[in-house]
Amino acid sequence: MDTNAPVTEAPATETPNRELLDAVRAGLRERTDPVRATGAQAYMKSTLPSLGVRVPEVRRLALAAASVHPVTSAGQLRATVLELWRGSTVREERYAAIDLTSLRLVARDQLMLPVYEEIIRTGAWWDFVDGVSHRIGGLLQAHRPMMTELLVAWSTDQDFWIRRSAITSQLKAKASTDQDLLRAVIEPNLADPEFFIRKAIGWALREYAKTDPEWVHDFVVEKGTRLSPLSRKEALRHLEQGTTAGITGAG
């Protein structure tokens, strides 16, 4: 489920913040929970070991370390994230690398795109991939023409994790959702039997249904049996019964 051989590598053009890296790595190991680590590794079906540190605690630790050892530029932050990601020996180091991308210094910075792509392609599992989905969404909001073209291309990529990222890129967009883009990234994947693609389609539709239930209802009706039962069930999960009663196979 994990790989250490990057398909696409983002360039690290500056020297990483070594103090920050040391603080993150030391802090994680201080919080090791061997019992929880065993269960976490089994749950994630991962060959990458776990320390058993809870995800919220990893986030708090990473951001606190960044406050004590601040990065000096966006380039240094990118280099630090990539160093932590590529040199990770435990899963939590990769979580911390993703958490560091939330710093304002790189908010909606399109130069972070190769970093996110490397995380998606080399992480190749749902926790890592979904960990940067809202970052991709932020880039879409800030750079619509460029990101729209990219996400449409991603929706037909050979790597299904890249395709999943295209589908989930607007999870938090709400009223800013580009309906044409949502349709464009879902349609090429309707026939894909991959669980994580079908789940992503349903997830994206379910979230948008909170904003525009009629659009989602009409989309599900339009696609009919081309939409997998899993995707359909997820898409309609929170719609009123009366709205879904006429949809064949609605779960």
TrEMBL record:
InterPro entries reported in the protein's UniProt record: ARM-type_fold, DNA_alkylation
Q: Which Pfam families would you find in this protein's record?
A: DNA_alkylation (PF08713)
| Signal peptide boundaries | none
PANTHER family this protein is in? ARMADILLO-TYPE FOLD, DNA ALKYLATION REPAIR PROTEIN
Indicate what this protein is called per its UniProt record. Answer: DNA alkylation repair protein
Source species taxonomy: Bacteria, Bacillati, Actinomycetota, Actinomycetes, Micrococcales
